[in-house]
Amino acid sequence: MLRILMGVLGVVPTPPLAVSVSPSSINEAQGGCPIVSSQITATASGGQPSYSYAWTWQSGGIGLTIDSPSSLATTITKSGSGIGSGVLLMTVTDQEPDTATDTCSVTLECGT
Predict the structure, then answer these.
(1) Domains with residue ranges and CATH for the chain
(2) Low-confidence residues in the chain, pLDDT < 50
(3) Helix (H), strand (E), coil (C) string for the chain
(4) pLDDT reported for residue 6
């Protein structure tokens, strides 16, 4: 409501909070490895900076580790043999506090 009133009064409204995750999909496989990992990064824009970040599993994620769950960028790690997969959810919160989300499909396989 406040953003709409500010626009009517001639003040340029703030663009809405948005987040984009890169890459949007990870599919990595390595043979004969003890560990396989991949990095993912979020980019936030709009809203009222500064932002806080939270990486969580929307689904799956069993056997996978989020190395930096409250950072702009993180590494997803699979230890030991087998396949780990899930949908990684990035939630960005600004100072309003508004939130925006994006996801990344993750599959990491570590062969023997």
Answers:
(1) 23-110 (2.60.40.10)
(2) 1-2, 5
(3) CHHHHHHHCCCCCCCCCEEEEECCEEEEEECCCCEEEEEEEEEEECCCCCCEEEEEEEEECCCEEECCCCCCEEEEEEECCEEEEEEEEEEEECCCCCEEEEEEEEEEEECC
(4) 54
